[in-house]
Amino acid sequence: MIKQTFLFIAMTAQVVCAQTKSKITATDLTRIKLVGGIELAPDGQRAVYTLTTIEPNPDQKEEYDYKTHIYLTGLKPGDTKALTRGPESARQATWSPDGKWIAFARTVKAKSQIFIMSLDGGEAWQLTNSTYGASNPIWSPDGKRIAFTGGVTMAQMLTDSLLNPAKGGPSWSLEKPGFTNNNFIKVDKKVKANPDGSLAEIRAYLNKDVEDKKAKVITRLNFQGEATTEPDITFSHLYVIDVVEGATPKPLTRGYASYVAANWLPNGQGLLAVSDRDSLKHPDREQDNAIFFIAADGSGKKTLVLGEEGKSYGAPEISADGKQLAFLVSPSEGVNFSQIGLAALNGATASGIQLVTFDRAAGNLVWTTISGSAKGKKAATSEVIYFTASSNGGAPLYRLDPATRQVTQLTDFETGVTGFDIVGNRVVLARTEVANPSELYVTDETAKAQTKLSNHNDWVAQRQLSFPQKRTYKNSLGQTVDYWIMKPTVFEANKKYPLLLNMHGGPTAMWGPGEQSMWHEFQYMCAQGYGIVYANPRGSGGYGINFQRANIKDWGTGPAEDVLAAESDAAKEAWVDTSRQVITGGSYAGYLTAWIVGHDNRFKAAFAQRGVYDLTTFLGEGNAWRLIPNYFAYPWSADAKVLETNSPYTFVQNIKTPLLIKHGENDLRTGPIQSEMMYKSLKILGRPVEYVRMPGATHELSRTGNVRQRIDRILRIYEFFERYIGPGSQLVK
């Protein structure tokens, strides 16, 4: 009797606890804090990391700002503290070799600069004051210097005597019609600008119009940025500076090229960095990247380490002893992802290249020396590589043994490792999961027992959540397609609920329980009483190269088969009201939304976001235009018909489903004219369609865009669907 009483009390307590939890709201978006930028101290006893938060704008009501600041943890639960604060964000924190200092980047007068902070206390002090900005600090092995990058415009290059001693133009052609060389860029300042004067004076006048931003003259191929057109290239150059107040930085690279992903060699004599393989090709046309040795003495010496026609090499990571090099390599064109490569390294020379057999897109390679006990031995140590890769709905942590080229998966598919660092046998990682969007954990080299260090998103414990259930489907190609079904958050077995088919973009993106970006949207829609089904159809990343290439010349029919099969199975659930089904997706999935409603009438309403609808015009208006030749063909080729047959716009007259179309006004990745064409055509046809333009928004609206617009977006999805499947939907039918 006593046991039964205790059991009753415990069960009652659980029910009361569940009832006191609230549902996820739209503005809970502003409460999500994201952990990143993890770096362990050299002794492995502490770690720095960044925390990105959304804060109310003090000067503009209902507006918010993103803030990123640096935190320190002593690797014990709850032992975290902010090292930076204030209105300007801080990022890219990195330890000095002796563990006494950190260098980091902070914006000063609209430009990033490098700061130094002592971990013994005291204010940070500014190391750089570069005209070109300074970011990505990297300490030299002896701790006396820091290498960093600065962004230099074409106009600045023409007058910079250090980066361009001859003050001439690039060796590659600027491709200005009517000129056989680049001499036209040398402007004679003695010539007066005069619209009614000589040809030279007219040219001076036109040049002044460009300087005064009255005209943009475009001759380059990749002229579209994310938010505006970019007639000129900006180059990323490497510098080095002594870690002394008042020191002057010295350029390590020169000329009309960019250098990224730099890493010091252990001897401090130089760095490995990535640049265009062929310096004689226009950077917009050169798709091959190579790894170069850059001398640290400022001589400008550059030596090719790894490079090959038709391939792109990147992400050079050097073992602690400097004898081994890990890198990523992939074909430069087509539908591909990078493979891990290994090579013996001797200064600026790499040899004995071997590729690792691993059918996923690896990233974030980190070398560490682990003790033999981790490999079943007592005394020996060995150099191994840790990395992450999106896979099967998660982002596991993996370990690679370079000696055997064997890869071991350390964490599961139910979570995602969004960042990590390792020193010796200690790993600190950021993890996302359904129960918590982002927290910091510490573990050992096996990553089996993970200890939670931070409490940044503990507020989620007071929210009711919906947890996805995984299922699989065998498609017409014989491939296994993963999909997940989420019930409404507040679920009653005898009730019927609407079903939302939500689709990912890319098309090489991947969703799952270990994917972070959709956490809030999924939970919000479930909190509003919707069930959700989402899938990784053919063409998705995370399932190997053959799966990723399975939608070449087939963006519509095949992927639609896969997502609709998932939807059909979910619709068989007893709780689904099959008369209330809706569909949405963004980017490529905006395309797929329009494709499906042009071929299928089962959905009561649809929301197509920042999509591509006509593949021929997309070639011209989107900066992601290389998707056209990679997946299909050029419009002038013999195979151009494939663009028409794969364009949702071709079937616009078949769309009868009420459609909401959204696009960012400054979205140059897919181009807003795509949505204008779709909207205007449906309006002419007299179909139920509404068009929402987001002023100032880019393609990244739903992830890192204006917070108020992000809230608007998710509310607009819900409100539009409610018109057609909500309690009062009969009023608009």
TrEMBL record:
Name the Gene3D superfamilies on file.
alpha/beta hydrolase (3.40.50.1820), TolB, C-terminal domain (2.120.10.30)
Residue span, Peptidase S9 prolyl oligopeptidase catalytic domain: 520-726
Q: Which residues form a coiled coil?
A: none
Superkingdom assignment: Bacteria
The reply to whether Protease figures as a keyword in the UniProt entry is yes
**What does the record give under GO molecular function?**
serine-type endopeptidase activity
Q: What UniProt keywords are attached to this protein's entry?
A: Hydrolase, Protease, Serine protease
Q: Which GO terms describe its biological process?
A: proteolysis
Q: What is this protein called?
A: S9 family peptidase
